[in-house]
């Protein structure tokens, strides 16, 4: 363009600028709507991991041989923020939610926005699936999501401490035994005392292990929900938590301790027993390999099932993991379910465990020889998943959980005589819309 | 912050009869218009033309959401159950205002506002004096150095402060264990007092540069001859400060205080990152977030937001009417 034509004339140039702007806007809109999507592209909203879900997406895309293509889209890092984003998108009718990685506690709340699971898919994907994961995938006796991987906490212990305390670790132990051992050995227990979701996980596991439930009628509407906190089970849970808090058995950082912080504590010299997810194993082995921790530490680590509350009753370990849901507004629900079946295949679950440390929900996957090599505690994990109890399965889980977090943390402030009742009253008032959370 | 919208009829600095202030606005429009010359009127029109589009955009992006929030706040409405939407009138406001959580969070927010603004004012003034008096050769470097914290994204600085004080990864405990009350087992984020201390320290570190810049502009407005005259009369440094400099900077100080107070009152990032409101550190913005974003209770959350907005309006009103902050005063000489 000759320079003479560029004489700055704002008035003359204005229409051209406007035209340019509208073309630009138009392009943005077109690409925004299309984003290169062909008819058979499925979007899978995944929670952050070590790249395992993206690898599975790629593998299934290849296997589909052009029938569908899975693109992954990353959700925020913590479960609560994942729920917030998914809920907003689902409520707005976002059709890009073909496949979603869902945390089990949020399944009831979002169940109404999910496409029903076809019978043949339900049949094919629930065979050999551990009890806990199935319970977490169900809402009102109907399978609404497909179990993918299942997480649970087990008891990790330092063999040297257990031996010094004279404990027989071949049998399940109780919380009272752990408390006593920590006291006599002058060591600290690895538990999660921070005011976060992990607190509800702990409280729920204790109450369920004592034969109770946080919510006794989880399917009721918000103003009719009844809580089981004021019970022997609730008081027993409060007694255990408050003892650990009052006697400083959880270390100085207890009030802000999450899963990673309790692992740090467990790896330190004051470590003794810890309840935590399987990720701690690859994390510890990795730290030894990179030289930050001593090999002797790995050899000192033992594992068993989640500690009991009652001497004569098996514990109900926490349940986590990821289920896959298909959005009701998805353009291709049949294709999406076809892809889901590929994603949750036994082979993929085993591979995902080995590479990312997330345990399979399908018991068959545990037969894979690679698993025993990288996760010698896999049988304990599998058995724990069979006994695991989901957190309250109510559409108002967020209110229940946040209410528990606000009154059961820090552990030192818990009082077995008052905390169960106070939290029960508070959560009930919040659910009736009479209080802020 | 409706008060922060620049008054579109840009007052021509050349017309002395048009000193903009709250008082002259009350004079009847017609009478005032007759006093303006053609040139002033043309300039006013140009002012509207220039500022009008921005003003309309401002209305669209602020007024519309504000009105929608006010409307939504009259309903009991949960995002995940849109069919159960129910009109409750002022019920949401009644729930909020009778709840101790609201008053506790209001107290926390006010405490953070008052403490941070007061400390920042003192520190900011000292920094402004340093910048003002610094040798020409280092002035640029000094200003840049002082401004660095303000340039850092709040979320990033919140994480930096969090990790510095965190009991597991922090270095503060081992560096300052010679101070009474601090040892390797100090868990800063486990009690209200210490957690608020870190939150406020981070807030102060981050925004003092802003206040000091505003004050530096105010310092530059103090006529040199006044301080000269005071010096000649034998005034001490303190007398020059309290009798000459500070009185002449009052407008700049009040604007700085107002802007920072409004900002501090809406604090969110630091608390969200460091404690997420745990252990009595929840502030009003976080309360609004918890209701509308976490609980998806759009009605209740909107009501909290509307109340938060009213609080901000009240602060602006107090500052502008009672303390007579002249927002236009900083632009031209007094």
Task: Report on this structure.
The complex is a heterodimer of chains A (437) and B (334). With 437 residues, chain A is an alpha/beta fold. Chain A has helices at 10-34, 52-64, 79-91, 107-110, 119-126, 131-137, 159-164, 175-185, 197-209, 232-246, 259-267, 280-289, 295-300, 333-343, 346-356, 369-374, 378-387, 397-408, 419-431, and strands at residues 41-46, 69-74, 99-102, 138-139, 142-143, 146-152, 154-158, 188-190, 271-276, 301-304, 319-326. In chain A, strands 2-1-3-11-6 form a 5-stranded mixed beta sheet, sandwiched between helices. Chain A has a 4-stranded mixed beta sheet with strand order 8-9-7-10, with helices on both faces. Chain A folds into 2 domains: 10-144 and 320-378, D-Maltodextrin-Binding Protein, domain 2; 154-317 and 392-431, Periplasmic binding protein-like II (D-Maltodextrin-Binding Protein, domain 2), CATH 3.40.190. Chain A is globular and about 65 Å long. Chain A is built from 19 helices and 11 strands. In chain B, helix 2 (38-72) runs antiparallel to helix 14 (298-322), helix 4 packs antiparallel against helix 11 (250-265) and helix 5 (136-151) runs antiparallel to helix 8 (192-221). Chain B has 334 residues and is an all-alpha fold. Chain B has helices spanning 29-35, 38-72, 91-97, 100-133, 136-151, 154-165, 172-175, 192-221, 224-232, 237-248, 250-265, 269-274, 284-294, 298-322; strands spanning 75-76, 86-87. Chain B has 2 domains: 40-86; 92-323, MetI-like (MetI-like fold, Orthogonal Bundle). The longest helix of chain B is centred in the first third of the chain and has 35 residues, at 38-72. Chain B contains 14 helices and 2 strands. Residues 1-28 and 330-334 of chain B have low confidence and may be disordered.
């Amino acid at each position: 363009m000759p320079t003479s034509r560029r004489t700055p004339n704002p008035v003359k140039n204005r229409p051209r600028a406007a035209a340019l702007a509208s073309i630009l806007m138009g392009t943005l809109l077109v690409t925004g709507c299309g984003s290169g999507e062909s008819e058979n592209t499925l979007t899978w909203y995944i929670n952050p991991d070590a790249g395992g879900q993206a690898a599975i997406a790629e593998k299934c895309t290849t296997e589909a041989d052009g029938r569908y293509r899975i693109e992954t889209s990353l959700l925020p890092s913590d479960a609560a923020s994942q729920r917030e984003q998914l809920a907003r998108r689902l409520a707005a009718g976002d059709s890009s939610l073909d496949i979603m990685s869902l945390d089990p506690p949020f399944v009831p709340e979002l169940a109404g926005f999910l496409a029903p699971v076809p019978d043949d898919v339900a049949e094919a994907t629930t065979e050999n699936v551990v009890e806990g994961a199935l319970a977490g995938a169900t809402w009102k006796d109907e399978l609404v999501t497909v179990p993918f991987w299942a997480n649970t906490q087990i008891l990790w212990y330092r063999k040297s401490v257990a031996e010094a305390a004279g404990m027989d670790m071949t049998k399940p132990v109780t919380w009272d035994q752990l408390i006593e051992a920590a006291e006599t050995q002058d060591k600290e227990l690895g538990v999660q005392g921070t005011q976060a979701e992990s607190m509800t996980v702990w409280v729920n596991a204790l109450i369920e292990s004592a034969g109770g439930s946080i919510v006794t009628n989880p399917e009721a509407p918000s103003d009719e929900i009844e809580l089981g906190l004021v019970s022997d089970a609730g008081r027993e849970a409060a007694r255990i938590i408050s003892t650990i808090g009052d006697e400083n058995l959880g270390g100085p950082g207890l009030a802000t301790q999450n899963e990673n912080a309790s692992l740090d504590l467990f790896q330190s010299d004051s470590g003794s027993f810890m309840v935590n997810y399987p990720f701690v194993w690859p994390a510890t082995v990795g730290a030894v390999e990179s030289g930050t921790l001593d090999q002797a530490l790995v050899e000192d680590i033992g594992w068993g099932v989640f500690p009991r509350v009652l001497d004569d009753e098996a514990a109900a370990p926490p349940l986590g993991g990821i289920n896959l849901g298909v959005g009701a507004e998805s353009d291709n629900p049949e294709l999406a379910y076809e892809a889901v079946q590929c994603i949750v295949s036994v082979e993929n679950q085993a591979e995902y465990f080995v590479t990312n440390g997330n345990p399979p929900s399908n018991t068959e996957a545990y037969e894979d020889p690679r698993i025993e090599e990288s996760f010698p505690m896999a049988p304990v994990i599998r058995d724990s998943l069979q006994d695991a109890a989901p957190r309250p399965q109510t559409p108002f889980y967020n209110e229940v959980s946040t209410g528990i977090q606000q009154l059961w943390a820090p552990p030192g402030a818990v009082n077995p005589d008052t905390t169960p009742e106070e939290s029960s009253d508070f959560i009930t008032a919040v659910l009736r819309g009479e209080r802020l959370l | 912050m409706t008060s922060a919208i620049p008054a579109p009829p840009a007052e021509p600095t050349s017309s002395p009869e048009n000193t903009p202030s709250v008082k002259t606005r009350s004079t009847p429009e017609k009478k005032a218009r007759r006093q303006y010359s053609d040139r002033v009127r043309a300039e006013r029109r140009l002012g509207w033309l220039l500022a009008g589009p921005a003003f309309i955009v401002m209305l669209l992006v602020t007024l519309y959401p504000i009105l929608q929030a006010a409307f939504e706040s009259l309903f009991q409405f949960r995002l995940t159950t849109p069919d159960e939407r129910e009109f409750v009138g002022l019920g949401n406001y009644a729930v909020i205002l009778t709840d101790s959580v609201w008053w506790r969070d209001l107290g926390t927010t006010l405490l953070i506002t008052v403490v941070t603004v007061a400390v920042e004012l003192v520190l900011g003034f000292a920094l402004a004096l340093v910048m003002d008096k610094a040798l020409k050769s280092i002035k640029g470097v000094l200003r840049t150095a002082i401004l660095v914290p303000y340039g850092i994204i709040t979320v990033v600085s919140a994480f930096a402060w969090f990790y510095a004080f965190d009991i597991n990864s922090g270095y503060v405990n081992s560096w300052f264990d010679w101070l009474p009350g601090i040892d390797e087992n100090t868990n800063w984020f486990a009690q209200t007092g210490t957690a608020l201390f870190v939150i406020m320290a981070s807030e102060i570190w981050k925004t003092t540069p802003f206040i000091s810049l505003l004050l530096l502009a105010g310092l530059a407005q103090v006529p040199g001859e006044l301080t000269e005259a005071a010096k000649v009369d034998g005034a001490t440094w303190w007398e020059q400060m309290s009798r000459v400099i500070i009185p002449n900077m009052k407008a700049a100080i009040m604007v700085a205080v107002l802007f920072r107070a409004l900002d501090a009152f809406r604090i969110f990032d630091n608390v969200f990152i460091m404690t997420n409101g745990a252990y009595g550190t929840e502030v009003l913005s976080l309360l609004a977030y918890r209701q509308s974003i976490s609980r998806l209770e759009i009605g209740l959350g909107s009501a909290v937001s509307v109340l938060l907005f009213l609080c901000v309006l009240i602060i602006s009103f107090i500052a502008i009417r009672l303390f007579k902050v002249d927002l236009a005063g900083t632009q031209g000489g007094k």
